[in-house]
Amino acid sequence: MIEGELTPRQIVEQLDKYIVGQSAAKRAVAIALRNRARRRAIPEELRDEVIPKNILMIGPTGVGKTEIARRLANLANAPFIKVEATKFTEVGYVGRDVDSMVRDLVETSYRMVEDEFYDDVWEEAERRADDRLLDILAGRAPASRAHAPSLPQLPMATPEGADLDAERQEAQRHAEQIRQQEERVRDFTRRRLENGELEDQEIEIEVEESSLQTMQVFSGAGLEEMGFNMQDMLGNLFPAKRVTKKTTVAEARRIMSYQEAEKLVDQHEVAREALERVEENGIVFLDELDKIAHREGGHGPDVSREGVQRDILPIIEGSTVMTKYGPVDTSHMLFIAAGAFHVSKPSDLIPELQGRFPIRVELQSLSEEDFRRILVEPQNALVRQYTELLATEDIRLEFTPEALHEVARLAKVVNDNTENIGARRLYTMMERLLDELSFEAPDVAPQRVVVDAKYVADKMGNVVEDRNLSRYML
User: Fold this and answer.
1) Architecture of domain 8-112+276-362
2) How does DSSP classify residue 19?
């Protein structure tokens, strides 16, 4: 048995909390995620031979394709990136190289791992930051040491009959008095700092300011495509300089905590872990694949369609991409592609690319009942979002079942009569429905507002009935 991993059924149950319907797509991604855990448990000599079964989702916009992939990545705590196939062009032409999707995924992974490493050392980093703050507030900062009272100097030579031991004891007593006074000041300041009494006090701290900030007018895209980082290359020529910044104690603590965390975290270990996660757990969601589903017909190269397919193919098949953190092997990354395929068909893709997406699932258009469930069932349901938002203005918003049915019906009508944008239609509907209340909420609170079928009809009936108006308003 595989311990500590979600079963396919548990994965689907987790996805059900956020996505309504689309059981076939959920099952497909659940199996794909579970297969990763199974692969890690098989003998090592066979592990490299098991490649991910990439998934092609076919369905109209707004039915949950992107959300399924994103929630899946969250469940697996895996590096995830969403890219549109239409923004790439064939190598040698102006536009983004397909290798950039892997580099972007590595950057995402690096930030994830870095945040985890920072969390591990954050308590120690805050302790060190508080010590530095205490030094500044209690007058022991390096800049203030020059102004510390100097200890009495023993004479180089003593007059005949002088008591040398008495002089030495007096100097020691004086030094001890100064030390005790500093300790009392430090203890008093520490108590005030711990009690939060100094949070708004202004102090001066030193921060690093990179001299490369003035060079941001140049785009790093070209160098990034070759795996270079201008800041890394020129860092020694333009070292960061330290400047004095005036800020509050609260803000200084945050800045210093990050500075101390950077010292405690091994950046090379972060990069190693980030690359490993990308290779073993990375998920790339390749949207709008149908827009590049095209074969050349003798009219010259099509740099943004079939040419892109040919460039994407080796990435999905498994190749090594150079990044600024090191080489990345894409052989075991999971690719989830999606497209509406209204005009083109999956068979319009080049045969080699078709073969790299063996699992194909069709997502269904949303029904009126699906719209109603989307409004209330997911954990991030729209009704809950608006209820909580207006509650901050002391407005108690309540929806009747009839109102929910009416909003769902109107969303279905507008989708059928105009463009079918799926669940995204509910966002425009709800904004239109609560526009007046959202504007006036601060002036009419506190108040209890019940949204019923009549309320919905009054606010939206005319807009929905007028097809030309609904095209612009909804």
Assistant:
1) 3-Layer(aba) Sandwich (3.40)
2) -
Q: How much is the pTM?
A: 0.77
* Cβ pair 72, 15 in contact under 8 A: yes
Which residue in this structure is represented by tokens 């992939």?
Answer: 69
Query: Which pair of tokens denotes residue 141?
Result: 């900062």
pLDDT at 147: 43
Digit-coded pLDDT (tens) for 190-229: 888 788 787 888 888 877 765 444 444 444 444 544 445 5
Task: Report the mean per-residue pLDDT for the chain.
Answer: 82
Domain borders along the chain are 8-112+276-362, 120-147+169-270, 368-460
Q: Provide the pairing of β-strand 283-287 with 202-209.
A: unpaired
Cβ pair 465, 459 in contact under 8 A = no
Which burial class, exposed, middle or buried, applies to 342 when counting CB atoms under 10 A from its CB (0-12, 13-18, 19+)? exposed
Residue 461 tokens, joined: 């009936």
Between helix 23-41 and helix 267-281 the angle, nearest 10°, is 120
Tens digit of each residue's pLDDT (9 = 90 or more) over 252-269: 888 889 989 999 999 999
Q: Residue 80 and residue 70: Cα distance in Å, rounded?
A: 7
Residues 342 and 362: beta-carbon distance below 8 Å: no
Please report how many Cα atoms fall inside a 13 Å half-sphere around the Cα of residue 445, on the Cβ side. Answer: 14
Q: What is 151-175 written as a DSSP string?
A: PPPPPSS--TT--HHHHHHHHHHHH
CA atoms within 13 A on the CB side of 387: 14
The separation between CA 439 and the C-alpha centre of its own chain, rounded to angstroms, equals: 31
pLDDT in tens, 141-151: 443 444 444 44
Please check whether residue 209 is in contact with residue 243, taking contact to mean a CB–CB distance below 8 angstroms: yes
DSSP, residue by residue, 242-308? EEEEEEEHHHHHHHHHHHHHHHHS-HHHHHHHHHHHHHHH-EEEEE-GGGG-----SSS--TTTHHH
Beta partners for residue 361, in sequence order: 57
| CB-based burial label for 77 (10 Å; 0-12, 13-18, 19+) | exposed
CATH of 368-460, picked from 1.10.10.10, 1.25.10.10, 1.10.8.60, 1.50.10.10, is 1.10.8.60
**Residue 311: which of 300, 299, 323, 302 has the closest Cα?**
302
As a whole number of angstroms, the distance between CA 49 and CA 39 comes to: 9
> Quick check: helix, strand or coil at residue 321?
strand
